[in-house]
């Protein structure tokens, strides 16, 4: 995906959130913001947003001398989401279509994000989840079910902390024994890492691997060779979140993307409004205004 | 009001909106963004957001070589709002409390703003207006009615284009013969200028004056001396919008502020959440978390 000017205000907002995660000292926060503005002023906008985002967050972590500014936020989101699992698992079991319900919950879980730092307790998470589940869902159900039926190995690319607890519900439905869950190779934003996967118990039901990269998506060239082999060899890949979509859409491999459209840039790329949940393959390129036909 | 770090992403977003209003050439838009980032990197954050905003928008107009980048947007908003007046005027007349209804409409009109460039037709404006009228309204009704009863001269400080048509409905209710409407002295953002006041017919029912400044608020020191005299002499001042609130709150004069809380900085200053409509006086200072007691 190509950088657009819309990404710039978004990067500035992310830098502010990071600065506030790293320190409560207003002078230090201001220094982070000034540094980010200067860096963005000179940034190479021909890079993809994901590469720029990776560099920005490395820079932010370095300036704050913190390896993981979002550690506390992520732990809180994991704990809150985890508390909701028994109740949601019952809902899935008693629904007419458990797989579809689990897919919807996993997609709706994508709402747990930096924008929602205000989520103070389980009630807030549950409310956000319920609200998200009412948003439009554009899905290639038939292709997804067919692919699930045939796949012996499934690679599941996780996205955020918190959300990863709801991924567990979907993985339980699709059969964890054939699933490998991949998380980021290092902290970036509130993206899930190995410790997040462990704290929601994913390691107990499926294999969990790190992709080797600290990009907030899956830049294959930036990942471990071992991870790339798994990616190419998997019968099916399920990729959560916009970051994974941005980095893997149009790569030809049979990846199913499951995400909430969170920004106007991605919205124009998939031809669906912000807020929509998507389950679909974008095998060829996904140019603005040219979503793959059978997604709609 | 003091600048906070939250203002920075907001300025960057405003610059992008301006760049797109000024030119459809992506290279020129990118140049505007890079220039804005460098300027913000060096900006004096001890200035008020309003002064910085005034400077930023001067700079943007200069770089785009346009005196009024928002001319078309403003004309469209005026025309759409104007078309709705007969219908809204009937609603006011048949309501149990025409003054309160007109105040609510004028406050809700504050929703016509740069964030809502997507408002394509009258239906969109009407929908936004209806939606806004359902938001919480925190008002000092008694003080407002008392002040209206006693005032021989009322200075009405307008805010945005489009919105200014709904101001007309309120001015009709409070008696236009004693009202002077003040608009910005020059184009800045989508703020109403003399031509906007004229295009919604305000000059036919009340006196309309320019304040002499191109700040997106009312920086008295920056206004015509003649305007300052009117401000001091008026029995009552009604100030629309956040910009006027930011610049005039706590100045001791009996100003009634009527606005929608649109950003977290102002929200913390008035002690009400984003989205709330406010009608109130903030005679003393309005420090974060210390709203004037009788507003609530």
Number of domains of chain A: 2
Percent helix of chain A: 40-55%
CATH topology name of the largest domain in chain A, in short, is Rossmann fold
* Overall mean confidence score, pLDDT of chain A: 90
Q: How would you describe the oligomerization state of the chains in this entry?
A: homodimer
Strand count, sense and barrel status of the largest sheet of chain A are: 7 strands, mixed
Q: Any idea what the CATH architecture of the largest domain in chain A is? A: 3-Layer(aba) Sandwich
SS strand fraction of chain A: 5-15%
Describe the protein's architecture and organization.
2 copies of one chain form a homodimer. With about 300 residues, chain A is of the alpha/beta class. Chain A has 2 domains: about 5-65; about 70-295, Uncharacterised protein PF01937, DUF89, domain 3 (Rossmann fold, 3-Layer(aba) Sandwich), CATH 3.40.50.10880. Helix content of chain A is about 50%, strand content about 10%. The first copy, chain A, has 13 helices and 7 strands. Chain A has a 7-stranded mixed sheet, with helices on both faces. In chain A, strand 5 (about 235-240), helix 12 and strand 6 (about 255-260) form a beta-alpha-beta unit. Mean pLDDT of chain A is about 90; it is low at about 285-295. The interface of A and B includes residues 6 and 37 of A.
SSE layout and pairings?
The structure is a homodimer of 296-residue chains.
Chain A: H1 7-22, H2 26-42, H3 49-64, H4 71-94, H5 98-108, H6 122-133, E1 137-139, H7 141-150, E2 154-157, H8 163-174, E3 179-183, H9 194-199, H10 202-205, E4 207-210, H11 225-233, E5 236-240, H12 241-248, E6 255-260, H13 264-270, E7 277-280
Parallel strand pairs in A: 1-7, 2-3, 2-5, 3-4, 5-6
Antiparallel strand pairs in A: 6-7
Helix pairs in contact in A: 1-2, 1-3, 4-5, 4-8, 5-6, 5-8
């Amino acid at each position: 995906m190509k950088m657009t000017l819309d990404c710039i205000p978004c990067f500035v907002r992310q830098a502010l959130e990071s600065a506030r995660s790293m320190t409560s000292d207003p002078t230090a926060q201001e220094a982070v913001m000034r540094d980010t503005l200067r860096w963005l002023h000179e940034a190479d906008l021909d890079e993809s947003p994901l590469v720029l985002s990776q560099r920005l967050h490395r820079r932010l972590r370095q300036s704050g001398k913190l390896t993981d500014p979002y550690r506390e936020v992520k732990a809180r989101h994991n704990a809150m989401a985890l508390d909701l699992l028994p109740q949601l698992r019952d809902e899935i079991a008693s629904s007419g279509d458990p797989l579809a319900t689990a897919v919807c919950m996993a997609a709706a879980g994508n709402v747990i994000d930096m924008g929602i730092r205000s989520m103070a307790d389980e009630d807030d998470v549950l409310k956000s989840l319920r609200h998200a589940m009412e948003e439009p869902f554009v899905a290639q159900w038939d292709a997804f079910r067919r692919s699930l039926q045939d796949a012996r190995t499934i690679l599941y690319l996780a996205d955020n902390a918190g959300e990863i607890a709801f991924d567990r519900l979907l993985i339980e439905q699709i059969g964890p024994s054939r699933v490998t869950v991949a998380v980021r190779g290092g902290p970036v934003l509130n993206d899930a890492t190995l410790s997040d996967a462990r704290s929601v118990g994913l390691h107990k039901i499926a294999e969990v691997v790190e992709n080797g990269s600290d990009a907030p998506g899956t830049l294959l060239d930036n990942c471990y060779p071992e991870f790339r082999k798994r990616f190419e060899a998997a019968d099916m890949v399920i990729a959560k979140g916009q970051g994974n979509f941005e980095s893997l859409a149009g790569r030809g491999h049979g990846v199913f993307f499951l995400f909430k459209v969170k920004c106007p840039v991605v919205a124009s790329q998939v031809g669906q409004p912000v807020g929509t949940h998507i389950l679909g393959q974008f095998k060829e390129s996904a140019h603005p205004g040219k979503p793959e036909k059978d997604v709609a």
